[in-house]
Design a protein that fits this description.
mainly alpha, two-stranded parallel ribbon, 3 helices, about 10% strand
Length: about 100
């Protein structure tokens, strides 16, 4: 029974691989360009010590290097006591810098 299951699984995987072989599976952004992402922590442990202008400068430099997407960090604790402000700030600055 295990052998039959293994053969069936191999057949299914092989069929899926053959179907995907001719397709472009690259992750793409809305404008069709390949996704090139960068992880950036816009709200450090004490975000009130950071400066929007400095963050914007960093994000523009990242964009100039060819990155089109930024991966922003967030945690559940940022949902408490107005901490959304710092997460929203990161998204706003990334959008202004031309990043998705």
């Amino acid at each position: 029974m295990r052998l039959l299951f293994a053969l069936l699984l191999i057949a299914i995987l092989a069929a899926g691989a053959a179907a995907a072989a001719g397709r472009d599976t690259t992750l793409r952004t809305r404008d069709g360009s390949p996704l090139c992402g960068f992880y950036y922590f816009t709200h450090w442990w004490e975000p009130w010590h950071s400066d929007d202008a400095r963050v914007m400068s960093d994000l523009r430099e990242i964009r100039a290097m060819g990155c089109n997407t930024i991966f922003l960090d967030s945690e559940w604790s940022q949902m408490i006591d107005r901490d959304w402000f710092w997460l929203d700030r990161g998204h706003r600055l990334a959008k202004e810098a031309g990043l998705e």
